[in-house]
Design goal:
The complex is a heterodimer of chains A (306) and B (539). In chain A, 68% of the residues lie in helices and 0% in strands. With 306 residues, chain A is mainly alpha-helical. Chain A has one domain: MetI-like (MetI-like fold). Chain B is globular. The chains are: A mainly alpha (306), B alpha/beta (539). Chains A and B meet through helix 8 and helix 9 of A and helix 11, helix 16, helix 18 and helix 19 of B. Chain B: GO terms for molecular function: ATP binding; ATP hydrolysis activity.
Amino acid sequence: MTDTPETYSAAAEIGAPRTRRGPGTRAWLALKKAPVSAWFGLVVICAYALVAIFAPLLAPHGEAQVFAQPYAPWTANHPLGTDQIGRDILSRLIYGARNTIGIALTTTLLAFLIGGGLALVAAIARGWTDQILSRLVDVLMAIPSLIFALMLLSIFGASVLSLIVIIAVLDSTRVFRITRAVAMNVVVMEYVEAARLRGEGTWWIMRREILPNIMPPLVAEFGLRFCFVFLTIAALSFLGLGIQPPTADWGSMVRENASLIQFAQYDLKAGITPLLPAAAIALLTVGVNFVVDWFLMQTSGLKDEH
Amino acid sequence: MNTDTPLLTMRGVRIDGFADERWTPIVKGVDLTLHRGQVLGLIGESGAGKSTLGLAAMGFARPGCRISGGEILFDGIDLMRASEAEKQALRGVRIAYVAQSAAAAFNPAHTLLEQTIEAPVRHGLMSAAEAADYARTLYAAMDLPDPDTIGDRYPHQVSGGQLQRAMTAMAMCAKPDLIIFDEPTTALDVTTQVNVLAAMRKAIREFGTAAIYITHDLAVVAQMADRIKVLRYGEEVEEAPTETMLAAPKHPYTKSLWAVRAIRKPGETGPDKVLELNGITAAYGTIPVLRDISLAVPRGKTVALVGESGSGKSTTARVITGLLPPVAGEVRFEGAPLPPALRGRSRDQLRRIQMIYQSADTAMNPRHTVHEIIGRPVQFYLGKSGAEVTARVSQLLDMIELDDSFMDRLPGELSGGQKQRICIARALAAEPDVIICDEVTSALDQIVQEGILKLLMKLQRTLGLSYIFITHDIDTVRAIADEVVVMFQGEVVEQGLKEQIFAPPHPAYTELLLSSVPKMETGWLEDRIAAQARTASGG
């Protein structure tokens, strides 16, 4: 009791806060406490990113370089053998990382730009704008997206550009839903009303008042959407409508070498070969999910109590 | 029953809270003794540990808290050593709890009666029929309308005041020895509060229940408690019988709890009207909320809008700011009509009317620093940038009695009073003529309220600001208003200089509003009930 001053001072109500840690220090502190699964996910993602970036340096052969022997077994020259027309599988796996991840990342970003942007506009404007956009999204979501994508791809042709745009538009519906939902909670806050009363435009309110407050769920959603986009592209490639040859990508690699699996009874390694690109897809998806889980736990406060 | 042994004894109770990865003390060794049939008032500011101590009387610590030491004896039972099952047998049966928000404490899916009788029936004290009978008796004792049938209603079908009374009835249904009231009337309007207080007191007197009454409002506790204990920072400041405490508080801190009631200024008016509302009628959709409101704000003066919730005070503010264009009537600023809708107003028109909200927590973006919050209007309205903005922010911080070290803080790193000061600075940054203050002090502790009100008065003197002060707190009005506008159900009941409004004769509603404000005297509630009975029987 004796150490508290009796004269009132507004500044003394809460004294200096603990020294503010830089974002770097905070990130490191969070990382130190991260569970093993999150570390595993981070390592996997970093490894994939490095492989994708340095693909030309890492790959022993060219992406579409054809060798004499198709379906070659695992040898020193071709560590994972060759495919149906004699291309080195390891090289194609490495280039495939670059193509598949690159396209999936671009698509997800585009989906967030479209879906997130429209959702914020809908949340701020409400009324008719919100109604029209939301119903449009409902209509798009009512159609099974893989079938819809197949249809659109056969109409517009299976180029990388149309692949990216079509999947991005179809996926943006889900981004729209979640962004609108979280933004609605923020739009009703008095600080948004205060910004409106100040006369701020929609762009400022979107970017400065709402976006910083809805980032955590959006980042988590980004991870999940990335996985789904990745799987959709792989599925489309497997069906022959995704990334077109000779560009290496994991989905079409599974399809092209699928018949090798019959040889497993003669050479186990040959049987494994078509599973390698599938495993690459699975590993990345699992890794991203681990990181997303950890991130959600961090931001949503769903922490274990002692 | 031996009346000499206390019902509840707490000795040296210490409670820790878990924050920032370590245990910090919240309650630091408090002693408390309560005899049967006694009512103890626990008062103090938010964060003083009142509620934590109240819950500890049930042997309960909130998640993230632990009772780390001391002794809690309830009727000879050592709650520190009792098993969870033993404590559960006490809770709701021998010790009951009435929370601040009855709306949050009732399950919306069950009727009031089902929930009222749950505890005694579950613990096998009464049959369902007996309990229901007893509940109806209690409803009648709590002065609830239609006590025989009100129990069949769902929580959303009764008013906030009725729900709070139903919750008290629920607490009393198992005939407990002790009830803990945790700010049970804080969320209610003054006119409702009086009835709830009267009903609660009548019921606990009638059934001889002991009670701990937790509140931050000294005037309320004066009506309810036999003894008052003042807490601060988890320690006892002083304890005394109610009369003694009110007549001669010993500790300077206790004296400071009276602070707001000590501010006074004479009401004045001026010929120069900066803002005028002429015949404003407004509606949300087809529901009319304001009918023919006319008022004028003299330059450099304070107009207080008074009324209970739902009277249209905040809607009036929305009409002035342009958030809700009126159906009829016009808002004139310095003699010229303002465009009714926000979009139609120029940046300069927006700049000159600023608003401060009740809850500073939601009025500031939690991701913006103080510099960004105060700096933005400087940038936006006055076109300054870079170092000029920082210099102006520093100046504004000085005006609100804070220093430059606050610039980099986020709202989460500020106290309630500091937050409200930042909101004031944000309004000042626009260099406005009129500031609308919507219940700006009602969420704050008395001593902080005093600081904010004094600051607002100082700023008015130095900058010549005009305030529209929306409040339901009559003491605040007495403290700072020049003119008063009393509103009821969307209409102006009475308006004029403060002294005129507060001097009789009053229109019926003003009379009710003024007489409902608890006074800092022990007998006030009795007098008030007696007066009400007289008018009821007489008229």
